[in-house]
Specification:
The protein is α/β, with parallel strands linked by helices. The protein has a single domain, classed as TIM Barrel, CATH 3.20.20.80. Strands 3-2-1-8-7-6 form a six-stranded parallel beta sheet, with helices on one face. A two-stranded parallel sheet has the order 4-5. Helix 5 links the parallel strand 7 and strand 8. It is globular and about 45 Å long. The relative contact order is 0.15. It comes from Galerina marginata (strain CBS 339.88). InterPro entries: ASL1, Asl1_glyco_hydro_catalytic, GH. Keywords: Membrane, Transmembrane, Transmembrane helix.
């Protein structure tokens, strides 16, 4: 059927905020639902958790072919999941992640992801890291695709400590690819000097500034903060939205818009700067069988 005649699955909740959720059912995800701010979640996998939020499956990469192929149709047929979109490969330019050339990425896309467009699903690009090689990989992917890949939105990651740089980075991605953005990982994290991390107060400011910008930016469709887990596994623990017992904390309440848990300013000129985090370090997150693993690499 020509794409112009496809019936796109309807999105019933237009809130942008979501959860990058590696906890399976070991943590109660419903505690993030009290305000209606959270509308969706993903798990770096095709496996959902027990939730009424919209689930967004991910085709992680070569290692997930069997899992994705054997479960995706059942997931799509489950009306409770309310699946409307699919996420592509995770940080494909990184050796510790899906580790693909652009050409390999295109082959996987056309085999496992592209056919889902015919079911009315919106397709999100492979999500590169914020290392400079990430954007280059995505450009090469589109070149190799030609007209043979449907990409409805760009998925992307960013780690840093400067809210203004974050906003500029998003604007550059939108200018480059001319598609809506999903920021599926971001947090206030210093990879230049690992001993000099954002304080809790600085994270409150950083989250408020960046989240407020994305809520107001038409070209940002969705976002998910990295930290919806009791143990952030090497990322600044002050970025966590949960305490060590899996209960939503003050930052988590800020993220979901609980009154009184946000700063007064959403000025993007607030700069929380401890150095550029785009290089030489960046974080890589892998979820294998529900276990989150974080590795650090030097460019």
């Amino acid at each position: 059927m020509p794409s112009s005649h496809l019936q796109t699955r309807s999105v019933t909740n237009t809130s942008k905020a979501g959860l990058a959720w590696p906890n399976a059912d070991s943590v109660d995800i419903s505690q993030f639902g009290s305000t209606g701010k959270i509308s969706w979640y993903y798990t770096w996998s095709p496996f959902p958790t027990d939730s009424n939020f919209e689930f967004v499956p991910m085709f992680w990469g070569t290692k997930s072919i069997d899992q994705f192929s054997s479960t995706i149709q059942q997931t799509l047929s489950n009306k409770r999941m309310n699946v409307t979109a699919i996420l592509g490969m995770n940080e494909p330019e990184q050796a510790g992640q899906s580790n693909l050339t652009a050409q390999e990425g295109v082959q996987l896309w056309q085999t496992y992801v592209q056919p889902l467009h015919g079911m009315g699903l919106r397709l999100g690009s492979p999500a590169p890291s914020s290392a400079p090689s990430g954007k280059v990989w995505l450009q090469d992917f589109f070149t190799a695709c030609g007209t043979n890949c449907t990409v409805d939105f760009i998925a992307m990651h960013w780690y840093g400590t400067n809210a203004t740089q974050f906003i500029s980075y998003l604007q550059d991605y939108h200018d480059t690819f001319q598609k809506p953005l999903w920021v599926t990982e971001w947090s206030c994290q210093n990879y230049v000097n690992l001993q000099d991390q954002c304080s809790a107060d600085e994270i409150v400011q950083f989250l408020n500034t960046t989240q407020s910008f994305m809520d107001s930016a038409d070209f940002v469709e969705r976002y998910s903060w990295f930290g919806a887990m009791p143990n952030t596994q090497g990322v600044n623990p002050a970025d966590a939205l949960l305490d060590n017992k899996g209960r939503i904390n003050a930052l988590g309440q800020q993220y979901i818009g609980v009154q009184g848990n946000q700063t007064n300013s959403s000025n993007p000129n607030i700069i929380i700067s401890r150095g550029l985090s785009l290089f030489p370090f960046y974080s890589l997150v892998t979820v294998v069988f529900g276990v989150i693993q974080v590795a650090f690499f030097m460019l």
